[in-house]
Amino acid sequence: MGKRKSRMSKLAAQPRKPPKLETAFTCPFCNHAGAVECRIDLKYAIAVASCFVCKEDYSTTAHALTEPIDVYGEWVDECVKANEDVDVRIKRRRGYGDDEDA
């Protein structure tokens, strides 16, 4: 005679679902929460993130593993990179360049 299976062993054997990622994001330009939505078109290999409040958008290439969070993260990274370039140009114009410190 065998031992009965406990309820805990049945629950442990079931696979757990991964947590869902966000699909609506905060706009990096107008700061409205949930205003950015991402669309991924694998047929044309393009991904677009757009804000429906300020009408700003960003597009990039997409592949089979592209998720909306990837598109939004890339957009934010490009915004940060663009802002860093502006800061460097302003400092150079005003004479605050890194070359003068040495």
Describe this structure in words.
- β3 (46-51) and β4 (57-61) form a beta hairpin.
- The mean pLDDT is 83.
- By secondary structure, the protein is an alpha+beta fold.
- The termini are far apart.
- It has two helices and four strands.
- Helices cover 33% and strands 19% of the residues.
- It has a four-stranded antiparallel β-sheet with strand order 1-2-3-4, covered by helices on one side.
Q: Radius of gyration from the CA trace?
A: 23 Å
Strand content: 15-25%
Using DSSP, what is the number of strands? Answer: 4
| Strand and helix order | HEEEEH
Q: Average pLDDT across residues?
A: 83
Per-chain topology:
Layout: H1 7-13, E1 24-25, E2 36-41, E3 46-51, E4 57-61, H2 68-94
Antiparallel strand pairs: 1-2, 2-3, 3-4
